[in-house]
Write a structure and sequence with these properties.
about 270 residues, alpha+beta, Ubiquitin Conjugating Enzyme, Ribosomal Protein S5, domain 2, six-stranded antiparallel β-sheet, about 35% helix, elongated, cytoplasm, Impact, translation regulation, RWD domain-containing protein, stress response
Length: about 270
């Protein structure tokens, strides 16, 4: 465990719990952890059994009493079979695993060891299960399966088109987004902005985890406006995408009107 040698003082009970947790993990997996800050609130840990993956974790001040740790970054060895996967999808998947471990343990309970243990299940498949595992992640032949589209909107040479789909988890949402992007016309788009709102019920529990976020994909502020739109429409378990094909003519604020119109129509067409 590479960190500064001077003793760290626990500022409160939460911080003391964190330090004890990190000491335990370092004892179980010596040499796997690197501490980046003097107060030990940002660390990097190699995933046991899958040392080609390193996960950087940030601990909020109220962990473990209230908040779950945040997965900040993933790093892979050059020979990793995961480097070709979508990094943002994997980051969200790891965060889902972290949140699940945190809420299953209950508040005031540390969760990083359980998080690392669960990652072994995520990253490894028993040989006899290979066929079933591949079957679960095979992408549909049709990139537009499960998606509902708006009519295209054209203005001064730029075209906007919205797509919406029902999803039950962030993992499913990003899998469908990556599938949509396999279409040749979608790949030619200048931007594929998206927003999502998801309520996911914890297994064997009445509680729900809420995920909502957006991605501008280079069209500044577009994703947050789409998120605002589906928020005021009060729709859940949805991912909405607007693709823009840009010909060089700047539209100014009018582009946001077209983005929201395409997104709204797609959401309505999806039956929300």
């Amino acid at each position: 465990m590479s960190c500064k040698k001077e003793p760290l003082r626990a500022m409160n009970a939460d911080h003391e719990e964190l330090l004890q947790e990190l000491e335990s993990i370092d004892a179980i997996y010596p040499g796997y952890m690197t501490v980046h800050t003097a107060d030990s609130t940002i660390v990097s840990i190699k995933v046991p059994q899958h040392e080609y993956v390193t996960v950087q974790i940030s601990f909020p001040a109220d962990y473990p009493s209230k908040s779950s740790p945040r997965v900040m970054e993933l790093r892979f060895d050059d020979d990793s079979r995961l480097v070709s996967h979508d990094a943002k999808f994997l980051l969200h998947l790891f965060q889902e695993v972290m949140d699940s471990a945190f809420y299953q343990n209950g508040r005031n309970a540390v969760c990083v060891f359980d998080f690392l243990t669960e990652l072994d299940r995520v990253l490894y498949t028993e040989p006899e299960q290979n066929d079933r595992a591949v079957e679960k992640v095979v992408l549909p032949t049709d990139p537009f399966e499960h998606w509902y589209a708006s009519q295209p909107i054209t203005d001064r040479g730029s075209t906007f088109m919205g797509f919406a789909t029902r999803v039950s988890s962030e993992t499913e949402a990003f899998q469908r987004l990556e599938t949509l992007k396999t279409d040749s016309k979608i790949r030619k788009g200048s931007h594929a902005m998206c927003a999502w709102r998801i309520k996911q019920r914890l297994q064997d529990d009445k509680r729900e985890i809420i995920f909502q976020d957006s991605d501008d994909d280079g069209e500044t502020a577009a994703g947050s406006r789409m998120l605002h739109l589906i928020t005021i429409m009060d729709v859940w378990n949805v991912m909405v995408v607007v693709v823009r094909w840009f010909n060089g003519a700047h539209l100014g604020p009018d582009r946001f009107k077209h983005i929201n119109s395409a997104a709204r129509e797609a959401v309505l067409n999806a039956g929300f």
